[in-house]
Amino acid sequence: MPHFITPSLRTRRTPFSRWVEQKGVKAYTVYNHMLLPTLFESLEEDCAHLKRAVQVWDVSAQRQVELKGCHAERLLQMTTPRNLARMRDDQCCYVPMVSPDGYMLNDPVVIRLAPDRFRVSLADSDMLFYFKGLVAGFGLDVAVFEPDVSPLAIQGPLANDLAAKLWGDKVRDLRFFRHMKVDVGGKGMLLARSGWSKQGGFELYLDGAEYAEDLWKRLFEAGEGMDLRAGCPNGIERIESGLLSFGNDMTLSDTPQQAGLGRYVQDVPGCLANDALKAMARPMRIIRAVEIAAHDIPGCVSPWPLWMQGKRVGEIRSAAYSPEFEIGVAIAMIDAPAWSPGTLLQVEGPGDEWLEATVRPGFWR
Fold it and tell me: Within the chain, what is the greatest distance between any pair of CA atoms?
């Protein structure tokens, strides 16, 4: 039986929703109280196209929280064990954000605009209110607000060619997780070498909803002859690539170490979670890539238990069938006795279906 989203003002449309709908979006999810497109043709066809051409994604649901003021860096550092002191003004950083007791709250990309000004491009949780609470509780001199900024991703092997048509060959030299200013309708806007795929590309941070139509039209005019399509983050490609989804693969019940983000856990002065993270430095479960011996893989709408010799040892949190690798690809949280590469497991799938699975040494991409 099909399921539908009932729209209301609580579920916000994006500056690009009108044009996304004209391009044939077939499904949405709700992310940060906003519509996020999730399907155009089919999961498999969208994935194949992403790997061979170029797509434009409306990812406005990656809502922005801006921090501006003399305590902006201090406020950010309170929320993360990753050392932000060396960030440059043209840099982006992937940042695990944690509660004082050491559990994940979000995993945004943080963009440094100036020494006293940062923008946080959020995964799906309400960090705006958490930041405001810290400001009030610690008496910090920081303005915390949601700017009128909406990300639009350009992803795929031809992303460089498309961006160069609009902004010149200088974009080809932009390094990973760096950003630069480009012109959109006469206004300088931030273009970053980033995106939620391993196919290469950019994220353009639209600064002002009134520029959305002009940008959308310019992109599709420039993309003529390049097989440009509207698209969206693809579940198959992101699992193959090991790109974690907050709320799916890691939750409020997981630590950064359990989520495989231990390299970002540093003993940084000012982080509220330092003591808790030290006490949990050796996780008893961890994220792993898992192959499932099946071709018909439904999406995970609830975790699938993993078993080894009659004992539950974890759960599958994301899964899909990969036409390229001809195997079921999955992201799992697995207990210590069972997380070694090559370990054979049984998946208790939906509908009481049992499947064979194997722990991999790494992701497919």
Answer: 64
Q: Do 169 and 109 belong to one domain? A: no
Q: What is the pLDDT of residues 247-306, one digit of tens each?
A: 999 999 999 999 999 999 998 999 999 999 999 999 999 999 999 999 889 888 899 999
Q: Do residues 43 and 158 both lie within one domain?
A: yes
Hey, what are 312's tokens? 């539950």
Q: What is the CATH number of the domain that holds 333?
A: 2.40.30.110
The token pair at 350 is 């939906």
Residue 234 maps to which CATH number? 3.30.1360.120
Q: 299, 360, 290: which is closest to 330 by C-alpha?
A: 290
Q: b/e map of 102-115 (b: 16 or more CB within 10 Å)?
A: bbbbbbbbbbbbee
Residue 133 forms part of a structural domain: yes
Gap between the Cα atoms of 186 and 217, Å rounded = 15
Q: Render pLDDT for 220-245 as a digit per residue (tens, 0 to 9).
A: 999 999 999 999 999 999 999 999 99
Please report, for residues 182, 183, 206, 256, 315, the alpha-carbon distance to residue 164 in angstroms, rounded to integers and kept in the order given. Answer: 11, 12, 17, 37, 43
Instruction: Tell whether the model's pLDDT for residue 139 goes beyond 70.
Output: yes
Could you tell me the residue range of the domain that residue 357 belongs to? 284-365
Considering 92, 127, 145, which residue would you say is the last residue of a domain? 145
324: tokens are 């390229």
User: What DSSP element (H or E) covers 77?
Assistant: helix 72-79
